[in-house]
Amino acid sequence: MAKHSLIRDISGVLGSNILAMASTLGISILLSRILGPRGYGLYTSLYVVPQVVMGLVQLGMSRSAVYHLGHKKFDESQTISSIYVMLSLTSTVGIMVSAIAYVILNNPLLETNWILLALCIIPFALGNIYTSGIFIGKEDIQTSNKIYWIPVTLNLILTAITVGILRMGIAGALIANLLATATLFFVFFLRIYHQYALRWHFTAEILKSLASKGFGFALAFVMLQLNYKMDILLLQKLAKPSEIGYYALGVSVAEQLWLLPYAIGVVLMSRTANAANERMMARTTALMMRLCLPASLIAALVLVVLTPPLLPLIFGKSFIPSIRVVQTILPGIVIFMIYRIIESYFAGLGKPMLSIKTLIPSLVLNIILNLLWIPRYGIIGSAMATNLSYAFATLIFLIVFQKYSRLSFKEFLILRPSDLHQLKKT
Fold first, then answer.
1. Which residues, 6 or more positions from 31, have their beta carbon under 8 angstroms from its beta carbon?
2. CA angle in degrees (0–180, nearest 5) for 408-276-281
3. What is the pTM of this model?
4. Is 59 left (phi over 0), alpha (psi -120 to 50) or beta?
5. Whole-angstrom Cα distance, residue 50 to residue 125?
6. 363 phi/psi in degrees, rounded to 5
7. Residue 184: its pLDDT value, please?
8. CB 7 within 8 A of CB 424
């Protein structure tokens, strides 16, 4: 049984996301103004490798934890102990793979000390992801929210000190992130240790089950991250660092619209994993799509109007080229909200392969269009390529969800007068 109503849990996740967004925005403002377009572009490029690698090596443990704890597959304490055993293994592999990736990319603009600091963040970032999955699996959404917004807020404070006051540049930004991420990991790990009386007893059967289910989630996450980051990876080869900075900032601003579908997705995944009535959760998913789409369209229109005056005011006039990136990529951002909601439903059911089959053709399309359009249209061409790849993935997933749920397209795309009342009853 869920601890709170659907609206309360979604509101809690959304509130924590807004706090995290405000802190992330503060960090972006600090770094963009102090480091400039070139420095901000290098900082962004530096994190692409760990983000993609962590998506693979984490073996989908966060969502595997939600699935196993929600469906009560094994003894709770042994399951959680096994998750942290997997953390020690995946962290080691993640550091090694990321180091090799940096060597292969051989970007002469990235300093060795920056790379080392980025590598040190990996085990703690993975640890926070795993720990959040444990709380979501137990339907403790409130605690999971804290793991999301507190480290970002602490990161903002530390970044203001290391970069704003001490003027430590990119290294200072990395140190601030490392300290914030590590602190939160140890605080919540100790809570888990005492709350669930971990005995560090685990079996090969549990590890195998976690890894088996998690591998599918991991592959789906990597495909998703590649769809998100492929444009940045290709821009590193086809554009200047300053252009990457413009593009990264514009995409970051537009992606704030994903706060609502992310909040819905977290709660939906937790509820679906713990639900006995799969059909009911399909209808709840359809309800979330009907409500999210018009809300996101309104938010996108507001962003189109406010971006030209506010972006230069907040980030500085040097980032004026980012305005067009925001306005160009918004259609894809809005369309992909539907994808994220459906993906959370299937994640709760433990069916990541459906997401993978959808994302592979989308990624191929993304790569082809970026290679064709970046040389011709620059960063705007990359934004247009992202729009089409997002729309293609969403269309495929809508068809898959329609066939799986046996609901009509009208039931999950057309808003009904009774939807708000129905949401309050859920």
1. 39, 40, 43, 159, 163, 173
2. 30
3. 0.74
4. left
5. 10
6. -65, -45
7. 94
8. yes
Sequence letter at residue 244: I
Structure tokens at 25: 């925005």
- Domains of the chain by residue range: 6-425
Q: What is the pLDDT of residues 143-183, one digit of tens each?
A: 888 888 899 999 999 999 999 899 999 999 999 999 999 99
